[in-house]
Specification:
Blueprint: H1 3-22, E1 32-35, E2 43-50, E3 59-65, E4 74-75, E5 81-95, E6 101-117, E7 123-130, E8 138-140, E9 143-147, E10 151-154, E11 173-175, H2 189-224
Antiparallel strand pairs: 1-2, 2-7, 3-6, 3-9, 4-7, 5-6, 8-11, 9-10
């Protein structure tokens, strides 16, 4: 991660500590990130939610730091905000998946409000990414929320043995899950159940037919006697 981002996070972290004493109630509604899928290796749209301002002050910008595992991020346009991708050089370059090389990556996405977002309103930002193939990994997206007065650093990351729910300003995070079976010949539980039900239905019909035949034969023998 580039030094400018680290410097901003450190400075904003100090401001966040100060705000924690001034307005602990504000931190109850955290900046969060959710995903339309958390399956490892899949394309996903991440939604970053901004629920309030800074101790009553309107939000003017939100800088979202992108984990180093991502080499490409596509932000969604939000008509209320200007969007900027802050690039970082990759050394060494990485393959781009199309026979070429990628020499830089999106290290940060910054949304700047055309009109400051009032404290009592919320907004969301969407980022399109391809998730890494590492089920169980938690990805953190530290965010710096700047307001007309003050700022808040949502950058606290739980170390081993810590619980993020205890933090006042936790970094938004997503935990990856195992990918589901693909469609190339794999049979899902639902398919297996359906096949089982179909097999039982055929067997039941067969038994019914045998019963009809046996019943008819018995009736014929009864009439003859």
């Amino acid at each position: 991660m580039n030094t400018s981002i680290l410097a901003r996070a450190a400075a904003a972290g100090s401001a966040a500590v100060a705000l924690a004493f001034l307005a602990p109630a504000t931190a109850a509604a955290h900046v969060t990130v959710s995903a339309n899928t958390t399956e490892a290796g899949q394309y996903s749209v991440l939604t970053v939610g901004i629920p309030h301002g800074c101790d009553g002050a309107s939000t003017t910008s939100v800088a979202i730091q992108i984990p180093e595992v991502f080499t490409n991020v596509t932000p969604t346009v939000n008509p209320n905000w200007e969007v900027e991708k802050v690039m970082e050089r990759l050394d060494p370059p990485v393959e781009d998946g199309h026979g070429g090389e990628r020499t830089e990556r999106v290290a940060e996405v910054v949304y700047t409000a055309n009109t400051p977002l009032p404290d009592d309103l919320r907004d969301t930002f969407e980022l399109s990414v391809r998730l890494p193939e590492t089920p169980g990994e938690t990805l953190y997206f530290p965010a710096i929320q700047e307001c007309e007065e003050g700022e808040v650093a949502w950058t606290q990351i739980a170390a081993e043995g810590q619980d993020a729910s205890d933090f006042d300003y936790p970094a938004p995070a997503v935990t990856l899950t195992a990918a589901s079976a693909d469609d190339d010949g794999d049979t899902t539980a639902a398919d297996t159940d359906s096949a089982g039900v179909s097999g039982l239905s055929v067997a039941a019909l067969g038994l019914s037919a045998v019963a009809v035949v046996l019943g008819g034969a018995a009736l014929v023998r009864t009439r003859r006697t």
